[in-house]
Amino acid sequence: MNKSKPKIPVAILNGFLGSGKTTLLKGLLSQAARQGLHVCTIVNDMSDLDVDGDLIAGTEFIGRNKERFESISSCVLSSKKGLERLDSTLARMLSNDRPDLVMIETSGSCHPMPLVEYFGSRHDTSLHGVLTLVDCAMLAHDYEYGHKLIPTMQQNLSLDKRDTTNLLVEQIMFCSHLALTKADRIEADRVQEIANAIHPINPFVSIMSVLRGKLSLNELLQMPAYDHLRVAQLITELKPALNLEADEDRPYDLATRVIKDDRPFHPQRLWDACHQHLDQKTYRSKGFFWLPGRSDVSLLWNQAAGSIGLELVGYWRAGVLEADQGRLSDYELNVLKERLETESGRFGDRHCHLTVIGDKSTVDVFTDVLKRCFLTETEIEYWQSGGEFDDPWPSNIVRVNN
Question: What residues have CB less than 8 Å from 399, skipping those under 6 apart?
Answer without folding.
Answer: 311, 312
